[in-house]
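Key result, reporting period 2: structure in, sequence out.
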């Protein structure tokens, strides 16, 4: 609006400008179609475009409540306040439950919290909450009602968005040199690197500050890197680590992928508002590809803690090994194990497996087979029991009764071929214990089992570990500071029936942990914690030590997926020497990488091979012909490194020669010679250039004592 368009009837001052103090703004009429950037209250507002605070961001609407008369009104209010008081602080008079003309509640309520974050958490944690069989909460924001009310009655199809191809999450598998990646987290930094054995240092792929608020985790097949935040979980992947998905879970603390990588479980605990109440646990299940929440489990912590557990143990739900039979997960309850199946997320056969007094369970890594442990019942009259249960049929594959048991630990072999139970038994006097193993063969008819006891069964079992892809296992046993390590095989070629057989025992080893290579054959005997990081790289085929090494104060050991390299790390558990070392499988140190406040080292898993067993066998048979290309590539890299080093040396030499020539030219210049003449004449008035006085020859003799040796004189007779 120009000056000439201002109405002439407006009061003006002496300077000719409008005196706005005398103008009643309500009497002004704006030109049609010109809102001066101010949206009129009388015009329609697109709520999707205009983002404004309604003032009701702290209010939620809880629907599907029971409809109760006045007699039960106070009780229902107390129940609702108790539920939401555990999530946030409900304002005074912040619960409003409307009633009808007959005095009966209308089945919904308004709850007001102190801040929007608490309101969002309440929606997240109680939407779908089952008050009883007939009343399941439907919770939403109060602001949502105005948003949905503005939706036009006539449907208008949304315009299709242009297709944007997403990054290839398996691109890291296409590296022409067959390298592996790893993620490290230190300070506020998270970095992803290639492990480059040729250059003997990590090669940076991606880095980001404040990428996560607690920790990071690779998905089981390596497609995604998960970061954990207060608001939820985010998944990243592709060459540029773009964000692929995010899952809302307020206050999330734990995550767990299914082995097939299609599902994600997230868990959290929430302190109660009242000290007399229990902490609340929330576990959500999501579909990784769609981002949809499939199911939520909520309740007091006592519902998720059983047996001798102290506090919440994650994972609360354990996933079965990936198989064609389905994706199963299970949780242990009182006298039962509940098995669910994804994606329906319902109980298998709509009921739990009843197991009196069950204390522990675990899944086969390769098959939907559940192993469970039930302790002795009835004061020892009913024996303890180990059972293997197949899903979804719930058929018992094999069971074994155990007597005088003080404790058990269960170990599955990675391929699911074998299963071991370490059993600690009480002696007849009940004053001491001894240990043995129950061994099951899952791939043989009727699942035969046998008992293994050490020659000295009173010895302490320090550690046990299966060979991941083979038929052997290792046991550290002994009571001293340097125990023995024994190796056994489940295949006895000299017998018609397979029996467990001792391969050999190595004595007096500084080891308390066992780390098999993912491909078997090689094992690291590690002395962690009190043993201060002693390592022995042992070839089980040859029963010989390939190398011994030390990484002082090491806390972690992790093999890469190929079994070619192994990492030892010192994390922030110790204040000094934080960082990691990378070794070859035979114990040769490749490089060290120091980082202050070092928290995590994680090798990136590899996707399952697409090759058939026949093709893998053929490659192994003709390995030399396949490795020729990689040998040539390695040689070219070494030559390039040598050339680069030679180029650096030549560059330094050229720089030195150039400097030398510059100085020589200056010294030989007429200006420099003239300066020298002036200096000499000023200091030595009688000096003449080229005269005899230029040179004075003096001879000096210097005597120097090289050494002094004292020898006693022989006595004279």
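The corresponding designed sequence is given below.
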């Amino acid at each position: 609006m120009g000056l000439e368009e201002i109405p002439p009837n407006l009061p003006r001052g002496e300077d000719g400008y409008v005196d706005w103090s005398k103008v009643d703004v309500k009497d002004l009429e704006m030109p049609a179609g010109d809102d001066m950037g101010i949206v009129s209250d009388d015009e329609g507002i697109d709520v999707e475009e205009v983002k404004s605070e309604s003032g009701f961001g702290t209010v939620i609407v809880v629907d599907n409540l029971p409809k109760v008369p006045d007699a039960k009104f106070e009780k229902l209010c107390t129940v609702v306040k108790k539920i939401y008081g555990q999530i946030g602080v409900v304002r005074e008079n912040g619960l409003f439950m409307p009633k009808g003309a007959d005095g009966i509640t209308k089945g919904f309520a308004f709850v007001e919290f102190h801040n929007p974050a608490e309101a969002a958490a309440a929606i997240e944690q109680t939407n779908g909450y089952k008050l009883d069989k007939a009343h399941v909460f439907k919770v939403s924001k109060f602001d949502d009602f105005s948003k949905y009310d503005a939706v036009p009655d006539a449907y208008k199809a949304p315009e299709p968005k242009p297709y944007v191809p997403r990054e290839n999450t398996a691109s890291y598998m296409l590296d022409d040199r067959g390298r592996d990646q790893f993620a490290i987290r230190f300070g506020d930094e998270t970095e992803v690197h290639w492990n480059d054995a040729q250059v003997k240092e990590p090669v940076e792929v991606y880095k980001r500050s404040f990428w996560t608020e607690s920790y990071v985790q690779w998905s089981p097949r390596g497609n995604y890197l998960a970061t954990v935040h207060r608001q939820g979980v985010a998944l990243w992947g592709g060459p540029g680590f773009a964000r692929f998905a995010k899952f809302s879970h307020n206050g999330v603390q734990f995550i767990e992928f299914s082995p097939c990588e299609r599902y994600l479980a997230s868990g959290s605990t929430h302190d109660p508002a009242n000290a007399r109440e229990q902490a609340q646990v929330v576990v959500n299940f999501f579909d990784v590809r769609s981002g949809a929440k499939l199911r939520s489990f909520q309740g007091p912590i006592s519902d998720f803690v059983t047996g001798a557990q102290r506090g919440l143990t994650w994972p609360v739900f354990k996933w079965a090994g990936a198989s064609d039979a389905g994706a199963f997960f299970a949780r242990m309850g009182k006298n039962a194990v509940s098995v669910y199946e994804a994606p329906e997320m319902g109980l298998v056969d709509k009921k739990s497996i009843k197991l009196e007094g069950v204390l522990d369970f675990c899944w086969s890594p390769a098959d939907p087979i559940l192993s469970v442990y039930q302790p002795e019942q009835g004061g020892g009259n009913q024996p303890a029991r180990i059972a293997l249960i197949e899903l979804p049929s719930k058929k018992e594959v094999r069971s074994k009764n155990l007597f005088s048991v003080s404790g058990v630990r269960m170990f599955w072999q990675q391929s699911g071929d074998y299963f071991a139970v370490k059993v600690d038994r009480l002696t007849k006097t009940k004053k001491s214990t001894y240990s043995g193993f129950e061994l099951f063969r899952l791939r043989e008819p009727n699942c035969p089992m046998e008992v293994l006891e050490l020659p000295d069964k009173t010895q302490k079992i320090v550690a046990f570990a299966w060979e991941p892809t083979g038929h052997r296992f290792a046991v550290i046993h002994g009571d001293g500071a340097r125990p023995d390590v024994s190796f056994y095989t489940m295949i006895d070629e000299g017998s018609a029936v397979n029996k467990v057989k001792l391969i050999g025992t190595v004595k007096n080893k500084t080891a308390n942990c066992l780390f098999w290579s993912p491909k078997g054959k090689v094992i690291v005997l590690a002395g962690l914690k009190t043993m201060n990081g002693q390592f022995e790289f042992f070839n089980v085929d040859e029963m010989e030590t390939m190398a011994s090494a030390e990484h002082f104060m090491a806390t972690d050991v992790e093999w890469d997926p190929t079994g070619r390299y192994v990492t030892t790390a010192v994390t922030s558990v110790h204040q000094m020497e934080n960082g990691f070392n990378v070794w070859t499988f035979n114990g040769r140190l490749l490089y060290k990488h120091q980082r202050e406040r070092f928290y995590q080292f994680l090798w990136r898993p590899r996707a399952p091979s697409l090759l058939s067993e026949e093709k893998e066998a053929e490659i192994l048979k003709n390995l030399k012909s396949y490795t020729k290309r990689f040998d040539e590539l390695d040689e070219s890299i070494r030559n390039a490194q040598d050339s680069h080093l030679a180029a650096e040396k030549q560059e330094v030499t050229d720089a030195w020669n150039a400097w030398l020539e510059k100085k020589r030219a200056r010294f030989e210049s007429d200006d420099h010679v003239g300066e020298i003449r002036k200096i000499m004449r000023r200091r030595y008035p009688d000096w003449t250039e080229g005269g005899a006085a230029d040179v004075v020859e003096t001879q000096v003799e210097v005597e120097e004592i090289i050494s002094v040796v004292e020898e006693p004189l022989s006595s004279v007779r």
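The radius of gyration is 39 Å. The longest strand covers residues 201-209. This case is discussed further under Risks and Mitigation.
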